[in-house]
Amino acid sequence: MISFGMDEKFTSDPYNVELHGLLSEAEYEQAINMVNDMMKPARAGIGGQLAFYGIGSIVFTAPCAYVHYKRVRKRKKLLHEARDR
Fold this sequence. Notes:
By secondary structure, the chain is mainly α. It has one domain. It is built from three helices and no strands. The longest helix has 27 residues, at 58-84.
C-alpha cells in the first residue's frame, strides 16, 4: 500500500496478506521495515512538499518536475538494492 506524505511506502502489518507459507509474519514485518528504512532518503522533503502545494504558476512546475524525476530514479535504485539484500 502506498502512503502519500508518510514515512512508510509499504504497510508492515501482515494482516490480510497471504504469505503462502514463504515467510512468517515476523519475517515479513522485518523485511518490509527494512525496505521502508531504505526508502526514506527517496521521500519528499519539506521543501518538495511546500513546492508541490504552493504551485501557482508554470515557473515552479519545472523545478518540481525535475526534483520528482530525480526522486523517482533514486526510489527505483533503492528498491532494487532492497530486493537484492
